Here is the input.
Amino acid sequence: MGAHGKTRRLLRVFAVPLLLGGVLTGLGSTAASAATAPACQAWTGGQPANPGDIDSGDSLSGVAMLSACNVWVAGVRGDRHTLIEHWTGGSTWTVVPSPSPGAGFNSLTSINGVSPTDIWAVGTDSNADGSATQGLILHWNGTSWLQTPSPSPGTFTQLTAVHEISARDAWAVGTYTTGVGTSTLTLHWDGTSWTQKPSPNPGPGSNSELTGVTATSSGDVWAVGDFISNTQNVAVSTLIMHWDGTSWKQADSPNPEPDSIDRLTSVSATSPNDVWAVGFFANGTADQTLIMHWDGTSWTQVPSPDPFEDDNLSGVAATSADSAVAVGTGQTAAHGGTNVTLALRWDGTAWTQAPSIQLSDAAFLAGVASISATEAWAVGFSGPTPTKTLAFHFK
Here is the structure.
């Protein structure tokens, strides 16, 4: 298994059984003022310090940028509690308390918001023995992180991504298991409560999952993931779904290796005619990066670099037709070697490798957020064991 498989396996160890709960404090008027303070705007240092580790084995999976100096990250602590931290410039991060309701594991996988007083974070928590998990949804109201009731239709329910359109319109996606397989899960926030919406589960049996969600409006929402398309050789195919304001429908999507493994992990849209989805595919020898683009008519595969022997992409963030960033992990040798961070940039014409943080230990990038062509943050963890939080600031 390549770098992607190893990264996904580690992330799922943290995300599925762990519940990341948290209360973010200081983001109200005080933090908002700090975000625009001269100290932040004038900060010209190099790579900011990594978010602070609370326990041995901390990691990050999600990042949200409200501005260049107002950044939030979410993940899991080594003690199986949720981890949320805030950066407003300078060389330090602030750990903000967050709920961890599960008696077993608590983890957060994604964070997204529309204002300093309206942010969502999602993940999973489990009971003491891990025999059941449920979706975990936390909301930041400008003062604290509070848990919000989340539908959990299966014995094992996991939320993997969240995207907020407005205070009365947000989506969270993931997967749930009922004992006969896994099914896609889409939840909608209407300003009052989260409710489950029916979503496609293609392929033989029920073995589908969603890993990313994005939107440009209430009637233009995209979700991506994968499903088992052939049970005989366990072929895995890309899954892309679209919400038109009324229902979810599956969209046709490329599969460069239809008899092997093709997976999508993240999606980002700037307009109804400009959407990016990323992931990886296994060509029989190694994993390779997979990037797809929606032009308003169809999804097509776009050439992407594979600078290492095994490469995968786990996050994408687009800000305009000429600017997008994708991150992931590579390995210096096929199915082995050292795990290294991978970053790619889109300039309107082609995807090219971008400089990224490299450490002496194994390093993984799991998520990315961006607000412009010159401002982006990527997060993940370094290791191998116990892991430590990792954040990389693109300028």
In short: The CA atoms of residues 288 and 311 lie 5 Å apart. The chain has one domain: 3-43+53-394. The helical segments are 3-15, 29-35, 38-41. The radius of gyration is 19 Å.
